[in-house]
Model the fold of this input.
Amino acid sequence: MTYEPTKQPNVITIDGPSGSGKGTLAARLAVHYGYNLLDSGALYRLLGLKAQQQSLFVDGAFCDGIVPTVQLVDLALTLDIQFIPNKDQQLVVLLDGQDVTQAIRTEQAGSLASQVAVIPEVRIALLQRQRDFAVLPGLVADGRDMGTVVFTDAPAKIYLTASAVARAERRVNQLRNMAIDANMNDILSDIEARDRRDTERAVAPLKPAEDALIVDSSSMGIEEVFAELVRYIDLKLG
Ligand code: C5P
Done:
């Protein structure tokens, strides 16, 4: 009798700073390969939003500057969230059954996300939730530590970056397309602050995995980047 090896889902990780184009490219790659999609940043954004709803934040900072670790871990473990693809293949995000697709995309939600994301206990609480997305036939996982912490065995790892100015310009356009008011200087300083917080934090800092393909998309169009990523992934997944 022969035993078939158990088939494992293929995992493609895409890490990089905010506004590097990872979200768009991850979604396109998921459609291209017919894989599931994990937008791990959305998990941190949802947790930030939930913490705000629970009044753990006041004026964008933790109350009295005290980090409410126990409450945040509890929220992370019990977050009631759903990602539902709509007819345009985009994900509708529900928190406690409410559509928060737009609410989690604001710069303020990004700032809350990066404040909860520096807490080691919160990251551990969200670890298994993220790994549960890796089901057959495969997963495209978009975030900051997908290749370095969450899916270290992934056969294809990408680190996508771009200059802060290029990323700020893209973010302004993206927000304006969603009819959200955006100011270039505010967005740029927010991106720089978030970069600092993401790269300098002690736990799971933003950095390329040692075996990642690094792509700087500052002066590349989306199609060019997509083609380069597909070439690399096809090579890696054989
Ligand atoms: O990718 P996005 O901008 O939605 O992520 C929001 C914030 O969540 C990031 O600035 C980062 O602080 C945090 N994050 C993280 N680890 C991930 C994904 C996001 O720390 N894997």
